[in-house]
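SEVERITY: medium
COMPONENT: batch folding queue
REPORTER: lab tech (J.R.)

DESCRIPTION
The queue accepted two submissions in a row. Attaching both inputs and their returned structure tokens so the on-call engineer can compare them side by side.

ATTACHMENT 1
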Amino acid sequence: MEETLSRRDASDAVSGLGWRYLLGTLRASVVVGSMARAASVAAEAVAACGADADGHLRADLRADRVVLTLQTLDRAALTALDVDLARRISDTVRQAGLRTEPETGTGAARSVQQLEIAIDALDIAAIRPFWRAVTGYVAEPGADGPRDPLVDPVGQGPAIWFQQMDAPRPQRNRVHFDICVPHDEAPRRLAAALAAGGRLLDEEAAPAFWVLADAEGNEACVTTWQGRD
């Protein structure tokens, strides 16, 4: 079994290829001009991965872009093989006159990202089964403890994780969004949120995450892989 890569090692290995590390995955976008071209790019990515495509590659096809995600799916982790597949895909896409990119600072609608929903709880083990049942979600491979996160088995919806509360806090929202962005996108995202009327509540844990709030106190965290190893 291949060794799991650290966040930093995975990020460093693929940043120059246009991929970004996000929540245990590698993700890149390929800008295209039609659904037919998107399908062609996806097919080329599958061919570049060969027999490893089924266990590592996911593709989201739209008329304007293909979003590619790599992970060793049966372990919910990244290995050297995922990095090799990213390199193969990027080379194949480049030969087709396109490129893999994170869409950071390019004027795109947004960069590649992943969304998490965090639920504050006093007794995580007591509420986790409810959220698992009502969402149809499952545990990640190797992480099915009573306090572990839940994920969409088809990889479309945001992950759900549970934050331990020390005491009831009825005055505060108990569900907040975590927006995982590329590490080099975080400054832009923070600036945009603050310019839109947001407030910075806490940056003690930065660059792992910054806690923001809207004008009514509803919270969201901008997160990156950095500061977590």
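ATTACHMENT 2
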Amino acid sequence: MTDCEASINEQINVEYSVSYVYHAMIAYFDRDNVALKGLAKFFKESSLEERDHAEKFMEYQNKRGGKVKLQSIVMPLSEFDHAEKGDALYAMELALSLEKLTSEKLFNLRSRAEPCCAVNGFH
């Protein structure tokens, strides 16, 4: 497996992992005793977006002759209540950190892809 292929697989797995955390947030905020439907809707859209990103990277990997390697997804939190911050603020701060992680990983992927593209004649 090439470094570029491994990097794309890493991004696929990050996107799926973040989607999974957002899915846990949907379940939490949709509960009858939490009932923050707007947050549940927000995290549903976020989860679908991250999954869509993973699927696009999978399509790209396959088109370029690479092999998609999915990893196990770590079980996310199922409770997002926080004594000091409250559940909504805590979840949004977690979501922000996940978005920063995803962006950082994308930036790293781009940096690793540039040498691969140069070798293969892509600009």
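NOTES FROM REPORTER
Helices lie at 3-29, 37-63, 87-119.
No errors were logged for either attachment.
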